[in-house]
Backbone:
C-alpha cells in the first residue's frame, strides 16, 4: 500500500482547526496534526494504489486554507 507524509502550509487568514478537520475527513488520510515549525500541519496518507494516493493529495490541496504542500513518499524496503 503506498503511503506518504504531506507537509502542509496553512494560510494565516483561516481557522487552523477548521482546515485540520477538513483534512482529517479526507479518505486516505490516516492521521493529520498541527505542528510547530516551518510547516503548520503534517498528514500521513495510506491508500490502495498510487492513483488514489494522488487523488488524496489533490483533495488536501483543495481544502480551504491550504496554501502549499510538500509530499514525501514512503520508501518500501
Residues:
Amino acid at each position: 500500500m503506498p503511503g506518504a507524509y504531506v507537509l502542509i502550509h496553512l494560510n494565516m487568514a483561516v481557522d487552523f482547526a477548521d482546515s485540520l478537520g477538513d483534512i482529517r475527513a479526507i479518505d486516505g488520510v490516516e492521521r493529520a496534526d498541527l505542528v510547530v515549525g516551518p510547516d503548520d500541519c503534517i498528514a500521513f496518507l495510506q491508500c490502495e494504489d498510487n492513483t488514489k494516493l494522488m487523488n488524496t493529495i489533490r483533495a488536501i490541496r483543495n481544502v480551504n486554507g491550504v496554501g502549499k504542500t510538500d509530499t514525501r513518499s514512503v520508501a518500501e524496503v
Remarks:
- Residues 3-65 form a domain with the Alpha-Beta Plaits fold (CATH 3.30.70.920).
- The longest helix spans residues 50-61.
- The chain has a mean pLDDT of 96.
- The first strand starts at residue 3 and ends at 10.
